[in-house]
């Protein structure tokens, strides 16, 4: 059974209440420009605020979803984070559909994350995220 949606503003946006929609996209430097230059471009072009953490710049949104710009290239393409309402149930659901997952990671102050072993059809990494 799917756990109820947390009372922190999460809402169902599709037919499956486990998957709440895009949490963030993660962009990587391509070696020609730095992560800071990418973040600064979004800030200047769209008038957005940029926050900085040790490994990434974050460009928040008024609605759910943000742009995360990693300071180092971790993967060749971008990544897409899908927010879930129940981490264990979402993992089980995908595994039952034959989707292979990497080992889950607990990120202090954030929650639980798990990457799909295979990228999306265009080569982007995808991960689930459950925010505490």
Describe the structure.
Helices cover 17% and strands 31% of the residues. The protein is of the alpha+beta class and 132 residues long. It has a single domain (19-131), classed as 2,3-Dihydroxybiphenyl 1,2-Dioxygenase, domain 1, CATH 3.10.180. Strands 2-3-4-1-5-8-7-6 form an eight-stranded mixed beta sheet. The radius of gyration is 15 Å and the shape is globular. The two termini are 20 Å apart.
Structure keywords:
2,3-Dihydroxybiphenyl 1,2-Dioxygenase, domain 1; eight-stranded mixed beta sheet; alpha+beta; 132 residues; disordered N terminus; 2 helices
Quick structural summary:
The protein has helices spanning 35-46, 87-96, and strands spanning 19-27, 51-52, 56-59, 66-70, 79-84, 105-107, 111-115, 125-131. With 132 residues, the protein is an alpha+beta fold. It has a single domain (19-131), classed as Roll (2,3-Dihydroxybiphenyl 1,2-Dioxygenase, domain 1), CATH 3.10.180.10.
Give the biggest sheet.
Answer: 8 strands, mixed
Radius of gyration: 15 Å
* Strand order within the widest beta sheet: 2-3-4-1-5-8-7-6
What is the name of the CATH class? Answer: Alpha Beta
The counted number of beta strands is 8
Total number of helices: 2
Helix content: 10-25%
Could you say what the CATH architecture is?
Roll
Considering the protein shown, what is the CATH homologous superfamily? 2,3-Dihydroxybiphenyl 1,2-Dioxygenase, domain 1
- The backbone outline, from C-alpha atoms, is globular
SSE string: EHEEEEHEEE
> Based on the structure, what is the oligomeric state of the protein chains?
single chain
What is the SS-derived class?
Answer: alpha+beta
Total count of domains: 1
């Amino acid at each position: 059974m799917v756990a109820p949606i947390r009372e922190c503003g999460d809402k169902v946006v599709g037919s499956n209440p486990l998957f709440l929609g895009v949490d963030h996209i993660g962009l990587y430097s391509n070696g020609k420009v730095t992560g800071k230059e990418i973040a600064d471009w979004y800030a200047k072009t769209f008038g957005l605020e940029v926050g900085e953490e040790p490994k990434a710049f974050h460009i928040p949104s008024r609605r759910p979803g943000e742009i995360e710009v990693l300071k180092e290239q971790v993967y060749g393409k971008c990544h897409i984070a899908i927010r879930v309402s129940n981490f264990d149930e979402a993992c089980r659901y995908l595994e039952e559909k034959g989707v292979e997952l990497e080992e889950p990671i607990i990120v202090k102050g954030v929650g639980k994350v798990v990457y799909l072993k295979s990228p999306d059809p265009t080569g982007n990494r995808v991960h689930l995220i459950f925010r505490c």
